[in-house]
Structure formats: C-alpha cells, structure tokens
Amino acid sequence: MIDLSGKRALVAGGSRGIGAAIALALAENGADVAFTYQHSVEKARAVSGSIEATGRRALGIQADSADPGAIARAVDEAVSALGGLDILINSAAIAYYGTVADLDLDAYQKLMDVNVRAPMLFAKAAIPHLPDGGRIVTIGSGLGERVPFPGVTAYAVSKAALTSFTRGLSRELGPNGITVNLVQPGSTDTDANPADGPSADAQRSMTSLGRYAQPREIANAVVFLASPAASVITGAVLNVDAGALA
C-alpha cells in the first residue's frame, strides 16, 4: 500500500470508468478526495459512498469541463471542503468518432475544450494551492501516440496535445517541487469501451498481453505517480496499455 495519508486530491471526471477507479484508489491509500461529474448524479453518489466507506472524506462536485467558470468553481469548492489541495488528476474526457472529411466543427470544438483546454484550466486554478511535493497527473490515451485504425483522428489529436502539456508544465512547476506526469491507457474495460464490445477482439490482438486493462490497473499507476515514491518522476509519459505501444 502507498501512503497518501493527509493528502487532498481532486479528480476531474471521477464519477465513472477510469476516473471513478482513480478516486477510490486514492481514498483507499489514505487521501481525501473531491471529484467532478457532469450528469451522472447516481454514479457520483455511489463513488462518494465508496470513498467514505474507506474512512476518507468525499465530495462530488457537479461541473461541466467545457465551462471555464465551472472549472474554477470546482477547484475552489474542493480546496474549501478539503482544506487545501495536494493532488490534481485530470481524467475528464469525451470521445469523437468520425473522419476529418465529415468533421462536425461544433463537436470538434467541444472535444478540444474538454480534452485539451480543461486540463490546462484545472491546472491553472489548482497551481496556487499546490505545495512543494504537489502532483498533477493527466489521463491521456495510447491513441495520442499511435493511431492504428481510421475514424479517431480528432480524438487522437486531442490526446497527443497532452504530451506537450505535461512536458511543458513540468518545466514550469519543477522549481516549485511539483511533478507533472501523463498516463496513457490502452483498451480498458469501461462502459465506453467494454471488453465484450464489437471491436474488442481486434483491440486485444494489438496488445502484448492479449487482454484489456481493468480500470483499477490504470488507477494503480496514477496512485504511484501521485505518491512520494514518484518524487523524481516528472514530465514523463507512462503507457499502461498491456503492451499495445510496444
């Protein structure tokens, strides 16, 4: 077990899938956790209950990651409720499927607002509160590095941008003792991409291990990067993808 006792975390996009697994894993390792959600009220309540069952404090904050004002408010609420902030996890994201030839401009703009602008704005709002030893971990995608099939170009572009965000921000915050890292999951068994879905066999065939990851396996990597054990790791990209990018 990694000791995060006394740490206060905010997970942007923590009501379902990988984000929910991260929120719970942080709590199980000792952190108090606030998380944002947009529509999934019942799922947010379930995540809060799971966090509280570990003995840690939980706060679900309804906030649209496409709304800059909501992002700033969410950080303020988390800091007020938890008494500060040590860890920021950027997990909120949306998908866009379709070719560039058929690109819907409004959908593309929202994709970039949520997947690229929101991590920057969450970081901007959180930085004044993060102490020496603070952590920022962003969830990207293996598609940001390799695009093995058509129809996901716009999504891949949004995830590729997070590499430069991570590396640049690590330079900016290094003098403050704050680390900034990127986790790139591969195919992970979630509602959005279930392991029994129509393309699951094709996705499994591209991995070294021949299987999907479970959300908790992604969360384990995030918890490590959020912990004191990763004190000298910053500006790094960690692929947690069953070997899909090997």
UniProtKB/TrEMBL annotation:
It comes from the Bacteria. Residues 182-191 have a biased composition (Polar residues). Belongs to the short-chain dehydrogenases/reductases (SDR) family. This is SDR family oxidoreductase. Pfam families: adh_short_C2. Keywords: Oxidoreductase. It comes from Coralloluteibacterium stylophorae. One of its GO terms (molecular function) is oxidoreductase activity.
